[in-house]
Design brief:
- This protein is mainly alpha-helical.
- The protein has one domain.
- Helices cover 75% and strands 6% of the residues.
- It has a two-stranded antiparallel ribbon.
């Protein structure tokens, strides 16, 4: 319970802790969700970049093998 009044005063007011806990849980959940989406996006982009490099290298290797067979 969060105390809002002077502890020495005759009237004590308080706010239940759930008023602070529930929004905190919501904010943490949203942050976790967006961090997850960001990490997943960056991983997918990295994987796509690697696949593109592999495809480019395979094409280059294929062209090199064609050139060497033509020379023979």
């Amino acid at each position: 319970m969060v105390e809002l009044s002077d502890p020495k005063g005759p009237v004590k007011e308080g706010i239940d802790n759930t008023i602070f806990i529930i929004p905190g849980i919501i904010v943490l959940s949203l942050v976790a969700f967006f961090v997850y989406k960001l990490v997943r996006s960056l991983r997918e982009r990295s994987i796509a970049r690697e696949e593109k490099k592999k495809a480019k290298q395979q094409r280059k290797d294929k062209e090199m093998s064609k050139k060497t067979t033509k020379k023979k």
